[in-house]
Amino acid sequence: MWRQLARTWVAAACAATACLLLAGTAGAFGFRDEVGKFAVEFPAEPTLDKQEGSSASGPHVHYTWEVDVDDRHFSITYTEYRTAPVKNYDKNIMGLLAATKGKLVHQARIEQDGIDGREVVTLLPDNAVMRQRLFQVGNRLYQAVYAGPFGTEAKADVETFMTSFRLLK
Fold first, then answer.
1. Backbone angles phi, psi at 124, to 5 degrees
2. Average pLDDT by consecutive 10-residue portion of the chain (169 residues)?
3. What is the pLDDT, as a whole number, of residue 8?
4. How far apart are CA 89 and CA 94, in angstroms?
5. What domains can be seen in the chain, in order of their start residue?
6. In Å, what is the CA distance from 142 to each residue of 13, 54, 145, 149?
7. What angle do CA 70, 10, 138 make, to 5 degrees?
């Protein structure tokens, strides 16, 4: 269920934009993707899902590293476009809300090494929550996504996952 919700968000965010494993701390997997140019600490070993698609911005590929732990979902997706789409986080967020029928709980501007981004918390149907961080760099849109029961979005492993996400140069 969480995987499908997260994938729905990725598709919505892309539409809106258009209109290795190293053992870490106990229970965590330090992960580094040199091709994807990011690093993060997952709560368990992730798997890769690759999907090709097309939007008003043209063809694109979604690369998603993901893991489900109990009734919670953790993923990093980067969508690679042939050319850089116009950066518009507000449209991304509106696409998320429309696709998930969610309600915006919190939105904040964030910055990482001089790259502007957004952190968004959304209340989803069935008392679920999605927390994510978005960064657009050139022709890539990065999304660090957590989905689970409402009230779990600030748990220690979620904080570790979110705050450990880093873009590599």
1. -100, 165
2. 53 41 54 96 96 86 96 96 90 90 96 94 95 96 97 96 95
3. 52
4. 9
5. 2-167 (3.40.1000.10)
6. 10, 17, 10, 23
7. 125
Question: The tokens 């029928």 sit on which residue?
Answer: 101
Which residue, chain included where needed, has tokens 């919190």? 106
Residue entry with tokens 């939007």: 55
Burial of 11 from C-beta contacts in 10 A (0-12 / 13-18 / 19+): middle
Q: Distance between CA atoms of 94 and 99, rounded to whole angstroms?
A: 9
Q: Give the three-state DSSP class for 127.
A: helix
Contact 53, 77 (CB under 8 A): no
